[in-house]
Amino acid sequence: MSDIIKQNLWDIIVLNTSESEAEWLQNRAASSRMDLMTAFVAAPRFLSKKIIFINQDQQFALNAEIPGFSVEGWSLVRLARVWLLTQLDPSDKEDYVKDIETLFDTAEMNELVALYAALPVLSYPDQWLFRATDAVRSNMGFVFDAIALHNPYPEKHFSELAWNQLVLKTIFNDKPIHFIEGLDNRANEKLAMTLSDFAHERWAAGRSVPAQVWRLAGRFMNTTLLADMQHLFDSEQVDDRKAAALACNDSSLAPAHYLLAKYIDLEKSVKSGALAWADLEH
User: Fold this and answer.
1) Cβ distance 259 to 226 under 8 Å?
2) What are the tens digits of pLDDT across the range 141-199?
3) Sequence-ordered alpha helix ranges (H) in the chain
4) Which residues are within 8 A (CB) of 245 and not within 5 positions of it... i.e. 6 or more apart?
5) Residue 51 CB neighbours (<10 A)
6) pLDDT tens digits along 187-234
7) Alpha-carbon gap, residue 201 to 103, rounded angstroms
């Protein structure tokens, strides 16, 4: 973990705390390991419930160190807890891992949210992989959101299987998949075909499929997915037709472009840039 990210987090904290709150945090940061862990738990008693909003320069500074990492919309308590974790001395791996694991084992929900949000800034990132994949199976919505949404840890460390499970559960939970960091970078054929199977089940039951999921299919277009695109073009839902046009345009497969060419207005919109996946992010 770099000292720069610690300082970046502190700079944001200072702008959002009173003098007494900042002093309390600094005192805890300069104390023993046990006091730091105690402060992690006790933070809500000493800090306000303020929500953090950051400007473009602050976001740029965070992403210069950890691409995709953001504290936008966090509570001050969550931000302070993450910062306190960065103050733990990582030089002794055994002690460091033991301390973090103890916090995981004893955490209530908001503490778990802070711990999972902190994964991108913790030392020994591979050490937390089991915890991270386990969080994907969590039934606690806030915990799942902390690992799945706006968190760059899964993109960097998850296997393809674990990544696909994360994306699928996000869809099953009706969460916005465009909040998943690295969504387009980690798109893969197995996920595209699983989404096709998922869509067929939903359609057979008379249910719809979020149009955005098809952004994960275009690069892996084949005869099965082409048939899905035709189904979408035939849909009465405008977003389905837009998704089909965008997915076909993403494909390098000639038949996909032939299919798109049949829908002149949509083709013009996609080719001109007037229609993009961002238009389906709702």
Assistant:
1) yes
2) 999 999 999 999 999 999 999 999 999 999 999 899 999 999 999 999 999 999 999 99
3) 3-15, 19-29, 33-46, 56-65, 76-86, 93-106, 109-118, 129-136, 141-148, 153-157, 160-172, 189-204, 223-233, 238-250, 254-261, 264-272
4) 233, 260, 263, 266, 267, 269, 270, 275
5) 13
6) 999 999 999 999 999 999 999 899 999 999 999 999 999 999 999 999
7) 41
Entry pTM: 0.91
Residue 75 phi/psi, 5-degree rounding, is -80, 155
* CA torsion, ordered 147, 149, 150, 151, to nearest 10 deg: 20
Rg, the chain, Cα only: 22
> Coil, strand or helix: which one is 159?
coil
**Cα dihedral value 215, 276, 236, 267, nearest 10:** -110
Nearest to 243 by CA among 223, 258, 260, 268: 260
